[in-house]
Amino acid sequence: xxxxxxxxxxxxxxxxxxxxxxxxxxxxxxxxxxxxxxxxxxxxxxxxxxxxxxxxxxxxxxxxxxxxxxxxxxxxxxxxxxxxxxxxxxxxxxxxxxxxxxxxxxxxxxxxxxxxxxxxxxxxxxxxxxxxxxxxxxxxxxxxxxxxxxxxxxxxxxxxxxxxxxx
Length: 167
Hints:
The chain is α+β, with helices and mostly antiparallel strands. Helix content is 26%, strand content 29%. The strands form three sheets. Strands 1, 2, 3, 4, 5 and 10 form a six-stranded antiparallel beta sheet that branches. Strand 8 (142-143) and strand 9 (147-148) form a beta hairpin.
């Protein structure tokens, strides 16, 4: 009898501010569901947020998705980067406008610190555009080493973010 591979719960941050951002994020959610060994469990509402860092650019459309996947963390990250490239993502400079950004936020309850793979995502606990959609779909979630997402979101109350009705 074949050994069953257990799925890991992971959370993916999605964002875009070039082209048609809402359509890009919608298509990216479908792409997540098509990853090998992966099931899209739930996706948050869409949120409009002001850019962080490089502010002279359009607002972002953001969301968070919960998936269950049999892919390891490194393989999942590689699949996310490949999806970004398919959506036309170019990395011209840090914080540049983008057609699609897919971030591996959480992978189970693991803490991973490897070259080019850091989980939890290193700045997620400081960003309302990640925390608001995360709290929407997983209200009691804690970020390893940082604390409860709800409390962390309250600390980001100065960041401009707006929940959109459409999705």
